Amino acid sequence: MVRVVILGQGYVGSVFAIGVERIKNGELGYYGIPLANELPIKVENIKIVGSYDVDTDKIGKNLYEVVKRYDGNKIPESLKNIVVRKGIHLKSLRNLPIRAEGLEDDRSLTEAIDKIVEEWKKMKADVIINVCTTEAFRPFNNKEELIKAIENDDRERLTATQAYTYAASLYAKDVGGAVFINAIPTLIANDNAFLELAKESNLIIFGDDGATGATPLTADVLAHLAQRNRYVRSIVQFNIGGNTDFLALTHKERNRSKEYTKSSIVKDILGYEVPHYIKPTGYLEPLGDRKFISMHIEYVSFNGALDELVINGRINDSPALAGLLVDLVRLGKIAIEREEWGTVYEVNAFYMKNPGPAEKGNIPRIIAYEKMRQWAGLKTKWL
Amino acid sequence: MVRVVILGQGYVGSVFAIGVERIKNGELGYYGIPLANELPIKVENIKIVGSYDVDTDKIGKNLYEVVKRYDGNKIPESLKNIVVRKGIHLKSLRNLPIRAEGLEDDRSLTEAIDKIVEEWKKMKADVIINVCTTEAFRPFNNKEELIKAIENDDRERLTATQAYTYAASLYAKDVGGAVFINAIPTLIANDNAFLELAKESNLIIFGDDGATGATPLTADVLAHLAQRNRYVRSIVQFNIGGNTDFLALTHKERNRSKEYTKSSIVKDILGYEVPHYIKPTGYLEPLGDRKFISMHIEYVSFNGALDELVINGRINDSPALAGLLVDLVRLGKIAIEREEWGTVYEVNAFYMKNPGPAEKGNIPRIIAYEKMRQWAGLKTKWL
Amino acid sequence: MVRVVILGQGYVGSVFAIGVERIKNGELGYYGIPLANELPIKVENIKIVGSYDVDTDKIGKNLYEVVKRYDGNKIPESLKNIVVRKGIHLKSLRNLPIRAEGLEDDRSLTEAIDKIVEEWKKMKADVIINVCTTEAFRPFNNKEELIKAIENDDRERLTATQAYTYAASLYAKDVGGAVFINAIPTLIANDNAFLELAKESNLIIFGDDGATGATPLTADVLAHLAQRNRYVRSIVQFNIGGNTDFLALTHKERNRSKEYTKSSIVKDILGYEVPHYIKPTGYLEPLGDRKFISMHIEYVSFNGALDELVINGRINDSPALAGLLVDLVRLGKIAIEREEWGTVYEVNAFYMKNPGPAEKGNIPRIIAYEKMRQWAGLKTKWL
Amino acid sequence: MVRVVILGQGYVGSVFAIGVERIKNGELGYYGIPLANELPIKVENIKIVGSYDVDTDKIGKNLYEVVKRYDGNKIPESLKNIVVRKGIHLKSLRNLPIRAEGLEDDRSLTEAIDKIVEEWKKMKADVIINVCTTEAFRPFNNKEELIKAIENDDRERLTATQAYTYAASLYAKDVGGAVFINAIPTLIANDNAFLELAKESNLIIFGDDGATGATPLTADVLAHLAQRNRYVRSIVQFNIGGNTDFLALTHKERNRSKEYTKSSIVKDILGYEVPHYIKPTGYLEPLGDRKFISMHIEYVSFNGALDELVINGRINDSPALAGLLVDLVRLGKIAIEREEWGTVYEVNAFYMKNPGPAEKGNIPRIIAYEKMRQWAGLKTKWL
Ligand SMILES: NC(=O)c1ccc[n+]([C@@H]2O[C@H](COP(=O)([O-])OP(=O)(O)OC[C@H]3O[C@@H](n4cnc5c(N)ncnc54)[C@H](O)[C@@H]3O)[C@@H](O)[C@H]2O)c1
Ligand SMILES: NC(=O)c1ccc[n+]([C@@H]2O[C@H](COP(=O)([O-])OP(=O)(O)OC[C@H]3O[C@@H](n4cnc5c(N)ncnc54)[C@H](O)[C@@H]3O)[C@@H](O)[C@H]2O)c1
Ligand SMILES: NC(=O)c1ccc[n+]([C@@H]2O[C@H](COP(=O)([O-])OP(=O)(O)OC[C@H]3O[C@@H](n4cnc5c(N)ncnc54)[C@H](O)[C@@H]3O)[C@@H](O)[C@H]2O)c1
Ligand SMILES: NC(=O)c1ccc[n+]([C@@H]2O[C@H](COP(=O)([O-])OP(=O)(O)OC[C@H]3O[C@@H](n4cnc5c(N)ncnc54)[C@H](O)[C@@H]3O)[C@@H](O)[C@H]2O)c1
Ligand SMILES: [Mg+2]
Ligand SMILES: [Mg+2]
Ligand SMILES: [Mg+2]
Ligand SMILES: [Mg+2]
């Protein structure tokens, strides 16, 4: 059994909840889950035990009511048993057309964190998934500074994700082991302040920013070109979608977080810098969760020949990440059993856009996959 | 030094010759050559020592004159020293608007083969590259049948490639070691008749069908999907170009050879059959050597979501293969030194659409690359 | 009131029936119907009074049962009142995996035709829509030859569409006026034999081959380029789909009919010939009725610059034609009232890929639209 | 003879100059010039008599030297006779990495304007083409305010284009007739202040913003959909290029000018608002003048079916506009002869993204073309 808490009951969190329950009901197969049901811990062993949000329109509602906004199909009744609780806000939804409340509105940050830790203990959580709205943030890199910010109630310096990770470390220390999966761009698994804390606290962090959509595909296409020694001259990657995550990304600083994790692959894979335009480009409501991506890559082949690739896609954004989370929560539980406190690069390298720790970069996903299987104790497929 | 003979002085053979000489003249870098200059045998060590064709408009001309039809740039003067010789025809150009002649027009097949073997001895050839027009063919699979066909002068049963490979085996046996690179779809490295012959004769065969263009890219994109356990529902891969190879492929049986090698990747990579349309689709003269490709892939993601990818490319066809050949001739020489008679799957798996031997299938190129590096004695890049 | 008979109760015929009934039930708006409800004859005035097919799996069934195979949504109950009758087969379904029967199986062709005419009289049909499977055919161009073929029971020479049109002329003569809409590639409005017959018989023919999908879009894109005096060098238009029409088009001769009507636009619009590949390219079952199209156009701009356009589309095939038919049946009724026996180029030029009569070619659709409005007595939009 | 002055000797101005001279030398045909050589005034009658810029690296150089930066081919020698003069700057190049100078640096604005008017008189200019860098601007709409700004030397309020147009009106009044072609987004033909001035001063204004690239194509594609009554749900139009114009457009206010003229077509053509993302998206140096465009359009067809179009293009930006200018200068001369002071909607509607006057909107280009021919006294092609 893996007991899971969801932070941010939005599109991704909801598709994750629906999909897991439908699988448990035998209504859905394993497509979109990289390791399907190969792991010793089965998909059917996942149990959602808690959910947090700061949208006043969600807090206090049960999961069934909340997730049905995101999926026209039959929603599993089992979701009626979980109520969405109030989380820590810290300006997560600033500038967005959503009314928000946070535990810290009427108490100190440390009190808010303590309250959450207490709740997690009651839920007996193993894994905490962070799928909140993309944040504008500054990394800490220094554990002392981080702790000081918490103690000083420094609400300008901290983001919700940073506070939640801190809470997770307190919780892990207390119960002897836990996992924090940071599926969003805020640097956590790439921030040494948090890794240090994790190692001391029996916490495992997976992160940062779930690797879905155009970015991992670009990684593999670039690896394909690199292996033929083709010289890439320019890379364009346009992304436009109509879910609230794209809306959030129209804000400059949030966009910048995403641009950073998305474009780091270029140098990592090719070994040289290439002029590129890679970032969430716009928000267009009617596109919904099925974003439109458009990529253009121009490169030099043998004898100076100039080739061009254009890749267009229409891709369901949230199911892609939700499918990865089904693996990540189970791999997290395995990591607890192995006591690999800190982070696990082999997991991050496949599942994350910006795999922690900071000093490690991107590798082609097709290879990362095999190494991840090895770590998980599974037979490689092609190695 | 690697001494190379080209069979089929067409687009690929000509770009190969131009590129190698330009590199030797310091006019061109190593882009488009997968291993660049990492191998102990340098690109500068390649020496073209012979060339064969059956087009009466090419036979007897020097290489400089022939290759300049294919490239508007300055052609290296060094190519004036090689004269295109008459090869074995065996209906290679049947139905094409080209006047053809073959050595076998006025002698028996065995005499023609012997003549060629003698010429190769004078040239001291190490590696024979086959880049003739795509053939309609039937594999042998049985060495005795093959030998019988040669002895009986069975011109209906045999293709030029089969005859050339046979000649290469006689030659290799005689001089103690040689390489035959079959860059075209005719099954040679996948035909046990030839592999058996090769092992007995100190011949190394690389093949079949150089892996360029949409096919290896499809392999990697499908691997990318497979690793996320996305269920592929359909695959479309259109190809259209304006070089004579595309013209040749408008003939049904030639097309079928190509379709076979192109579509074998689907089952190999995904592990299940998918309805697909993958074949050279048409000929359109103004497109020239820069073909247009269009791919459509539809797949199921988590929670039943349906995603779509469309990949369009404008890709120079001949330089792509020519660049691979620059590696292949050098890897061939290494294989001679190691006396790995027969074929080398590690090489084929990266460089060939249909990697021999027959019992071995396709693997994702990104992984094949690393295994090929290992075989070549190079450090892996990401493994 | 317009009383309509459908020949060929397949995908198009079924979407037409469903759409019209849903509109009459107030369940659907007018999207996809070019003239929406601007005509004096309203969409709500259309009444389907008969249906014919030769698929044994459809004959005798009611329309409700047949059309529900094509649409997952709620089907209007009103369709239960019409029974699919047996039509004239004449090898329409030859080579397709469908068991077929025709009235002519156990009677002469003239008897079969007479039987149908009698049925139409009972139905009081105004308009007969032909949406049968694409045929391999030879035009007549000579009325006497056509009549001779009918009289001689020449089943090899005639196609079902030709026989149906002949029947329509008998019927029109008898009742004083009727319309035959030939939405398929068989030349009817472009065959003078039929036009002559029509004029003598109070028949109006609209045709040939409904203008949906990539072809009319290509017409407008080419017009766009022509108006800027850009020189088009090559045109590629790939089409692949998964409905039975695409399956039928995998047969060479049927494909040729379609290729002809599709590619005639190039010279008509540009004024010069351009090397092109324009034809139904393949069949891929999982694509269903939503075909994938891929177009590539390369052209020369000012100062010798070379530009490229690539157009990809995922387009529902049958609704596109069904929407046009909603206009065509009403325009047909107007033409009866005006007694414009023969054909009406103004209507064909907008709605048909190969607008009859034969001596008239294609014009840009955007202009054809305005002329059609003028003919229909509507105000132009932009002229 | 049409005597032409170029304002802004950048990419467009240079390709215009090269193309015209090459045509006069018989080195180039008429591709990319909409009316080719159909007009009574021939392309060969165009004479470039002056050129202005504010880039210190261009001022004082002859045209031959300046234009050769933009075209690798042989440059016509005749361009050596024209020297690039210093223009009015007014912050045109603010924030761009270019050192700029303007006549107004060491004199008042009215003095600068007078100086230019004097120069034009010496040049005996008929037509002044404005192809300066895209500006951030505010329209005037009120003639008095405009005149006051000039008189008050209000350098913050005025842009270079506004000052140049004012100069053109003084010049036209003086010589009895002249043309100002505003090929950039600044509202001039759509600003009543300037139209009023023009009518009083014997000036003809064509504008605003030359209709090249994705925008007019979108207009025609949307017209195509509108005519079939398809309901457009969303429109994406990404543009990225590597010329200095794209660099200039990375500045927010300049971008906004362009966004405005580009997106006005949607409502004009469809008749209803559609959520859209239409704007210059980014700058990527290696793409050069050959921009990459990517469009996505989703629409509802008959029976509620949902279709998608994706249009990608690789389009040479500057030649497209330069080709239009070859017509515009000649149509301008015709307008002088006809004394059509003010503006000519029939010309603007085809050649301009935002056709003046303000109260007139966009119509499908395919129809605008025919109306423009009628105005020009040419036979229509399809009407
Ligand atoms: N494919 C993908 O969708 C994908 C891939 C990688 C990363 N991500 C990341 O996943 C995150 C979620 O994406 P989504 O599409 O579900 O977005 P969403 O906007 O639908 O959901 C985010 C949810 O988080 C809630 N929230 C915001 N701040 C919170 C806080 N402080 N505490 C608790 N809840 C909070 C919001 O109210 C909302 O319900 C984003 O940060 C995104 O960048 C998504
Ligand atoms: N990217 C690629 O271009 C690519 C990739 C994989 C495989 N290939 C294969 O490479 C081959 C060559 O392609 P190409 O583009 O150079 O074609 P091409 O038509 O330009 O050249 C083929 C040449 O072979 C000659 N030839 C034909 N039969 C011969 C014979 N029996 N003996 C000697 N010469 C003969 C022809 O006269 C011609 O000069 C084709 O079979 C093609 O399938 C090409
Ligand atoms: N957008 C479009 O779908 C489009 C556009 C232009 C033209 N068309 C033409 O419309 C026709 C119908 O397309 P579809 O997609 O509905 O195909 P379909 O295969 O779904 O339907 C054709 C139907 O006609 C029936 N049929 C065949 N021969 C017949 C005969 N002799 N008498 C009576 N019925 C007969 C078949 O049994 C089948 O039910 C095709 O000829 C196609 O070329 C379609
Ligand atoms: N297809 C197209 O290229 C296209 C289409 C429509 C409109 N336009 C417009 O045409 C204009 C020119 O485009 P381009 O690609 O040639 O750009 P560019 O940057 O290459 O050239 C602009 C030139 O104008 C000069 N300039 C700037 N301010 C000036 C001033 N005040 N006086 C005189 N010269 C000045 C610059 O120094 C530069 O040489 C832009 O405003 C663009 O928006 C271009
Ligand atoms: Mg890292
Ligand atoms: Mg094999
Ligand atoms: Mg016609
Ligand atoms: Mg206007």
TrEMBL record, chains A, B, C, D:
Q: Name one GO biological process term.
A: inositol biosynthetic process
Ranges for domain Myo-inositol-1-phosphate synthase GAPDH-like: 213-318
Q: What Gene3D superfamilies does the record point to?
A: Dihydrodipicolinate Reductase, domain 2 (3.30.360.10), NAD(P)-binding Rossmann-like Domain (3.40.50.720)
Q: Does the keyword Isomerase apply?
A: yes
EC main group: isomerase
Q: Which GO terms describe its molecular function?
A: inositol-3-phosphate synthase activity
Q: Which domain of life is it from?
A: Archaea
Which keywords has UniProt assigned to this entry? Answer: Isomerase
The EC number(s) given in the record are 5.5.1.4
Query: Is Isomerase tagged as a keyword?
Result: yes
Against InterPro entries, the record matches this protein to: MIPS, Myo-inos-1-P_Synthase, Myo-inos-1-P_Synthase_GAPDH, NAD(P)-bd_dom_sf
Q: Which family does it belong to?
A: Belongs to the myo-inositol 1-phosphate synthase family.
**PANTHER family assigned to the protein according to its UniProt record, in alphabetical order:** INOSITOL-3-PHOSPHATE SYNTHASE
From the Swiss-Prot or TrEMBL record, give the protein name: Myo-inositol-1-phosphate synthase
Lineage, top ranks: Archaea, Methanobacteriati, Methanobacteriota, Methanomada group, Methanococci
